[in-house]
Amino acid sequence: MTNPPSVVVLGSVHMDLIATAERLPGRGESVVGQTFTVSPGGKGGNQAAQLVACGLHTYMLTRFGDDMFGRQLFEALTSRGIDPSLITVDANEPTGASTVFAAEGDYSSIIVSGAAGKLSPADIEAARGVIETADALVLQLELPFAISTYAARISKAAGKLVILNASPAPDKAADLPKELLKAVSVVIVNSFEAGKLLGRELPPSDAARELAKTLGVETCIVTAGASGSAASRQGTIVFQPSFFTKVVDTVGAGDAYLGAFVAGLVEGLSLPATLKRAAAAGALAVSKPGAVMVTREEIDRFVG
Fold first, then answer.
1. Minimal CA–CA distance to 214: which of 168, 175, 160?
2. Long-range contacts of 234-239 (CB under 8 A, 24+ apart)
3. What is the CA radius of gyration of the chain?
4. Fewer CB atoms < 10 Å away: N or C end of the chain?
């Protein structure tokens, strides 16, 4: 029996405090909510969980505080099958948290990375051996650019795939460090984030093409909800329509999409097949409440 592909996810894991209502509040306004839940979150943690659900050996490289949230999140990660051997505990900084407001099939959030934002080059060096041998490194932009760039350069030098989920997106593409982009194999963003980076909104296929040119990255993926998703790889565009499904909420849907995409990528699937499985994961995720991870078996059944 061969070992499954392995991935290192460098990012934040924090506790999501999720309130749902019929609509999002305006500035300075309060609305009466319907439900409130506390659950593990953070782009890094959600993406790692999705990668495990797709059958990959997944390491989480992050830092927790020595507090209740940190202990709960550590237990949650290990119970989902995520390898915790690269997680460190910070005695001074609290574990990160995110306030999430969900309504009308959409959401807004405020993310405080906490201890994860204090990761240092020494933490990355301690993980160098795993980063160099893993098939891929997955990054987001919830951590300082310098830390992500440090890890990306190690992975790139070892000939591995580096996937950047450029979220939360900066105000413009020029704000992304060139050294980071030089090490990146794939950039994945949603249509809103692509619009920020490009300075204008475009359909997903056009946005993917322009973003690849602007960033100088080999492959760019733009997801646009019901409008589908598109990939630009070396000038060739592949468009994937969305699967119709009833939307319960969109929390974690982008992370489900990314996890399924990375799984297909490291397993050597074609780009169209990988996009199809990623779109299926996104559709399955929005059909359930909260940041629900989608199993390989569910995706297999969905795509037939």
1. 175
2. 235/209, 237/205, 237/208, 237/209, 238/271, 238/272, 238/275, 239/204, 239/205
3. 18
4. N
Give the Cα separation of 167 and 141 in Å (integer): 5
Q: Extract the tokens encoding 24.
A: 């999002």
CB neighbours of residue 103 within 10 Å: 18
Per-residue pLDDT tens digits of the chain, which is 304 residues long: 478 899 999 998 888 888 889 888 888 888 888 888 888 878 898 899 999 999 999 999 999 999 999 999 999 999 999 999 999 999 999 999 988 888 877 778 888 889 999 999 999 999 999 999 999 999 999 899 999 999 999 999 999 999 999 998 999 999 999 999 999 999 999 999 999 999 999 999 999 999 999 999 999 999 998 899 999 998 899 999 998 877 777 667 888 899 999 999 999 999 999 999 999 999 888 777 666 678 889 998 988 7
- Annotated active-site residue 171? The verdict is no
Round to whole Å and give the CA distance between 279 and 276: 5
What is the C-alpha separation between 231 and 212, in angstroms, rounded? 9
- As assigned by CATH, the class of the 6-11+42-91+117-165+243-303 domain is alpha beta
Please choose, from the candidates 169, 140, 170, 147, the residue with its C-alpha nearest in 3D space to the C-alpha of residue 46: 140
Whole-structure pTM value = 0.89
Name every residue whose Cβ is closer than 8 Å to that of residue 219 and which is 6 or more positions away in sequence: 185, 186, 187, 212, 231, 232, 233, 234, 271
- Determine the Cα–Cα distance for residues 232 and 188; give it in Å rounded to an integer: 11
Token readout for 262 is: 């990375």
Q: Which is the catalytic residue, given 83, 90, 255, 300?
A: 255
